[in-house]
Amino acid sequence: MRFLHTADWQLGMTRHFLDADAQARFTDARLDAISRLGAVAAEREAEFVVVCGDVFEDNRLAPAVIARSLDRIAAIDRPVYLLPGNHDPLDAASIYTSEVFRRHRPANVTVLDAPGVHEVRPGIELLAAPWFSKHPAGDPLTETVAAAPAPGEGVLRIAVGHGGTLPVGARDQRLIDVAALSERIAAGELRYVALGDRHSVTEVAPAIWYSGAPEVTNFDHKETASGAVLVVDVPDSGPARVEAVRVGTWRFASREFPLTAERDVDAAVGALAALPDKDRTVVKVGFTGTVGLAAKARLDAEIEALRARFAAVELWERKTDLAVLPGEEELDALELTGPAADAAQELLGVARSGGERAADASGALALLYRLTRQEVVA
């Protein structure tokens, strides 16, 4: 038996750093990922698709978002099982009980809306643990597995859950108990555990996997190997086989650059410019070190130019500690006189002091340099 394991579509997701044009592309990409994973299901002849929670970003979405999403799911020509997660729980405001969902729900969609066993067909069962609130007192999957009777002889049972996992030996009733799941797998009561919530493809333990999100949702220093769907083969006997197939097209790249000279600025700008698919790439960039006024002015200008090419360029403030310390020759080249020259010297002294106001003074000097150079060019 073969099926597709996916999760965390979070349809309707927005990102504050995307402008309106980039956000529209990002929204369409999340819908396109559904179509691509549907093509994978057809190509690999998967029997069904299971989405392990957070199908939608929130229960409060515009009807058009819900309707368009269901149209894409309808095009997957096999059963699709949707598990409510912490972003879209089965609470009083649930999307899954809304009028727009009922109106547009395609025939191939089954909402796993009750904890317990759901039969896919004779011999194949899903043991589902939906979320009924954003903050349950305990873990729904651990509770559901503990309460479930053993499957009948010859039945392949797949557990479907959502949430964080509990490391072996630790205790927290809000997290999925991996040790308990592994015991059920060893006993043959579960053949595979399909999880959602972690957006990176992750094997937690043998036959226990997070599929990750099918389209990227966070920067690569936090989220790795996202943008995939898992093709899972469960034989009549023996371990399940899992293959990650990429379906995502976006990238959130985080980069750090140490700068000590103008040539380092050239190298940093060159590395960023070399990133492919810029219209589908968001960059978070941090700079450390010390540069002069000319180098900082050039860096600012190049980063601003790159913003026009990428989906977004963000300053990584936590990884940025860049001092601007001009030399006397740089200040002399500005040919400042009178109060302006006195102010520049005062700022230079503060910048070199390394005190609390050093960064502000460096920034003021850099701004003064850019403005003065603009006047010279004009």
Automatic annotation (TrEMBL):
Q: Which Pfam families does this chain map to?
A: Metallophos
InterPro entries per the record? Calcineurin-like_PHP (IPR004843), DNA_Repair-Maintenance_Comp (IPR050535), Metallo-depent_PP-like (IPR029052), Mre11_N (IPR041796), UCP033093_metalloPase (IPR014577)
Q: Per the record's keyword annotation, is Nuclease included, yes or no?
A: yes
Q: What GO molecular function terms would the record report?
A: exonuclease activity
Calcineurin-like phosphoesterase domain residues: 1-108
Q: Which family does it belong to?
A: Belongs to the SbcD family.
Q: Which PANTHER family match?
A: COMPONENT OF ATP-DEPENDENT DSDNA EXONUCLEASE, NUCLEASE SBCCD SUBUNIT D
This chain belongs to the protein called Nuclease SbcCD subunit D
Q: Which organism is it from?
A: Tsukamurella asaccharolytica
